[in-house]
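Schema walk-through. Below, the input block comes first and the output block second. Nothing else is stored per chain. Lengths vary across the set, and this one has 100 residues.
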Amino acid sequence: DTHSCCTGCGDQGEESLHMDRDNLQQEVDSLRCQANMERWPVSRSITEMIAFVEGGQKGDFLIHSPENRCNPWIPKERRSLVRAIEECAYIALTRVISPS
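--- output ---
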């Protein structure tokens, strides 16, 4: 038995070649789709992300639960979601991950 990369390994080589061709075709199709996508500058993306998060805050029961007295994570005063996430990360880093 001689092996040649160009001729394949019998049935197994042909099957592998067919799978490679299918994978490459899927990748080309994906790249074509991505090439046609609208591109946004990062500044616009960030603005849109902030608007999306702030727009969903009022209906988020993790932030505004029906019974706030039962929610230990609710801030004592009204704050933004970004500030709440920063505080949770700080608590996790200082008290949970590396307690003194």
